[in-house]
Design a protein that fits this description.
The chain has 161 residues and is mostly helical. The chain is 80% helix and 0% strand. The chain has one domain. The longest helix has 44 residues. It starts with a helix and ends in a 16-residue tail after the last helix.
């Protein structure tokens, strides 16, 4: 059978199925149709409310991460403390750590989170080119003092502006 005939058969079956449903709904009257629409609407509303709640949680986590980064850049929090706070945030959603592990296979959870913190820091430093060099030196000195100079804990050089 050719692909064309297969599609025709599929379309005819779908049309028959839809027309049977319409006949049943027609026999049951307009109240049944309204009830079906209301049920679909309430189900959609529940889905939208669930998605809105999930999005609010994600926005909150992003906002908290940005606050942590701001604290590190201002010198009120160390990178090690930021890593711990990011780990706490990531534990709230198993998907966060799963994505980090996927992005950095073979690394420990702490190394994955450390890379995440450094990416946030680097992004923030790109928005502050005038302060970037001094902050970068302070953060790297902090890491050297804590004897944590793995490649996961180093800020890459930013391009000259």
């Amino acid at each position: 059978m050719t692909a064309r005939w297969c599609w025709i058969i599929v379309c005819v079956c779908c049309a028959a199925s839809v027309s049977r449903s319409l006949v049943v709904l027609h026999r049951m009257g307009p109240w049944c149709i309204l009830a079906a629409k209301a049920e679909g609407t309430s189900e959609q509303r529940r889905r939208n409310e669930a998605l809105d709640a999930q999005w609010a949680v994600v926005r909150n986590r992003i906002q908290v991460r940005q606050t942590i980064v701001d604290e590190v850049l201002a010198g009120r929090m160390t990178v090690a403390e930021a890593v711990v706070r990011f780990q706490e945030l990531n534990r709230m959603s198993p998907h966060c750590m799963a994505l980090l592990r996927q992005a950095h296979p073979g690394e420990s959870d702490e190394q994955c989170v450390r890379r995440q913190v450094w990416r946030y820091l680097q992004s923030a430093l790109e928005e502050r080119p005038a302060e970037a060099r001094a902050i970068r030196q302070r953060l790297e000195a902090e890491q050297i003092d804590s004897e944590d100079v793995s490649s996961a804990s180093r800020l890459p050089e930013s391009p000259p502006h």
